[in-house]
Design brief:
The chain is an alpha+beta fold. It has 13 helices and ten strands.
Length: 359
């Protein structure tokens, strides 16, 4: 049942120009139809399953109705009309939610804050340690692919078959030595930054700029061993579990609203995946230990950290002090320094294949 062609009016912005069009809004069982007030010309047809709401009535005077993956916006100034549309289309019900009273919000904040202080460390720290290994590999992989799509998107991957084979063989050896229960696959993204990270489900991302920066295969092996350290301790999934727990606490504190509420934005994903000092130290120690366990060169990790100090003598982690989520680089150099003994992490042929896999 529709709301009637003149029941609701709004302002439509197409996201491409500065033009504003006055439109009527009609909700049908499957879509929301927008027509120009002046001539009834069709402006847009938005499927209900693709609708979303930006903001809410608690924090914005006029929350915006949007269609996912489009820049267009619809603003309905009249609060009663927003409530009518939200009542007609349950998927966007919060479009018309009433602003909570001040007393109610203060009460929610007080109760939620007390609960958060009491439960935060137990529920998020210890709780994530217990829950993360129990998440099925298939679910972890699905979460990892979703995060990958947000962080990497359509950036080109290096496809050199021999290089990928060498990397995946090396990674598999480390994972087995670490007792990791599941496959780990390497993806090499072309260009920068000089970085690597591990996602839930055993997705290990290397940037080709990182490969170019390493002096030899043992330095790259040290970086990869560090990332496998994150994987065998389930750090990526623990980060997402803790992020979800933080979301619930913030919702309790704020009466249902949280700025970091979903994993749908790059900033939130990065926040969830930040490992923190304890995780970084654990990954460093585990990575070196796995290399030594396999009889491989374990001196590459500390040498890579030393190269980072040459690039950035004023170590950001040391400057940030207790606010840094990484230990100071000089500390990591000392903690991971090992003698140059053992078999090379990669043969000369493998290293050459890795170095040229993006060409």
């Amino acid at each position: 049942m529709s709301l009637g062609p003149s029941a609701i009016r709004g302002r439509y912005y197409d996201g491409k120009t500065a033009d504003v069009r006055e439109v009527t809004v009609v909700a049908t069982p499957g879509e929301v139809i927008l027509r120009d007030v002046a001539n009834a010309a069709l402006v847009a047809r938005w499927p209900i399953v693709e609708l979303g709401v930006l903001g809410d009535s608690e924090h914005e005077a006029v929350p915006l109705l949007v269609r996912r993956n489009e820049e267009a916006r619809l603003a309905i100034d009249d609060a009663e009309q927003r409530r009518a549309l939200g009542a007609s289309v349950p998927e966007i019900a919060r479009l018309g939610a009433q602003r909570p009273s001040t007393a109610g919000r203060l009460l929610q904040f007080s109760v939620g804050l007390a609960a958060a202080v009491a439960l935060f460390w137990v529920a998020l720290q210890s709780g994530s340690d217990l829950l993360a290994p129990l998440v099925p590999n298939r679910l972890q992989a699905r979460m990892g692919e979703g995060v990958y799509a947000q962080l990497v998107g359509q950036r080109p991957l290096c496809q050199g078959e021999k290089g990928l084979t060498a990397l995946n063989h090396f990674v598999s050896q480390l994972a087995v030595a670490g007792g990791y229960d599941g496959p780990i696959k390497v993806r090499v993204v072309k260009d920068g930054p000089i970085n690597a990270f591990t996602l839930p489900g055993g997705i290990l991302i290397l940037y080709s700029a990182l490969i170019d920066r390493t002096a030899d295969g043992n330095e790259l092996g040290g970086v990869i061993a560090h990332e496998i350290g994150h994987a065998v301790h389930y750090h990526p999934i623990k980060g997402l579990v803790r992020q979800y727990g933080t979301e619930q606490i913030l919702k309790a504190i704020t009466g249902g609203y949280s700025e970091i509420g979903t994993l749908g934005s790059g900033g939130t994903i990065l926040l969830a995946l930040r490992n923190g000092r304890a995780f970084e130290r654990e990954a460093d120690a585990t990575g070196v230990s796995l290399l030594e366990k396999l009889g491989l060169r374990a001196d590459g990790m500390s040498r890579f950290f030393e190269e980072l100090l040459k690039i950035e003598p004023h170590d950001p982690a040391a400057v940030a002090g207790i606010w840094s989520d990484h230990p100071p680089t000089a500390e990591r150099v000392a903690a991971t320094r090992r003698p140059p003994i053992g078999a090379p992490d990669f043969t000369d042929a493998e290293w050459q294949a890795i170095r040229t896999m993006c060409r």
